[in-house]
Design a protein that fits this description.
Blueprint (H helix, E strand, L loop, with lengths): L3 E3 L5 E3 L2 E2 L5 E2 L2 E2 L1 H13 L4 E2 L1
Parallel strand pairs: 3-6
Antiparallel strand pairs: 1-2, 4-5
C-alpha cells in the first residue's frame, strides 16, 4: 500500500521510503558502507531515503 503525504514545505511525497542506518567505523561514518547501502536501496527501486 502506498500513502501520499504533503510535507510542511508543500512537497508532495509518495511511494516507499527506507530509514537507513548510519554505519560507523572507529567513531566516524563509514562512507563506503553508507554508499553501498544507498546504492542497494536505489537498485531495489526505493522512492526515497530517510
Amino acid at each position: 500500500m502506498t500513502r501520499t503525504v504533503d510535507s510542511p514545505t508543500g512537497t508532495h511525497l509518495a511511494g516507499a521510503f527506507t530509514a537507513l542506518i548510519t554505519p560507523f567505523s572507529n567513531d566516524t561514518i563509514d562512507e563506503p558502507a553508507l554508499r553501498s547501502l544507498v546504492d542497494f536501496q536505489i537498485s531495489a527501486g526505493i522512492h526515497g531515503l530517510v
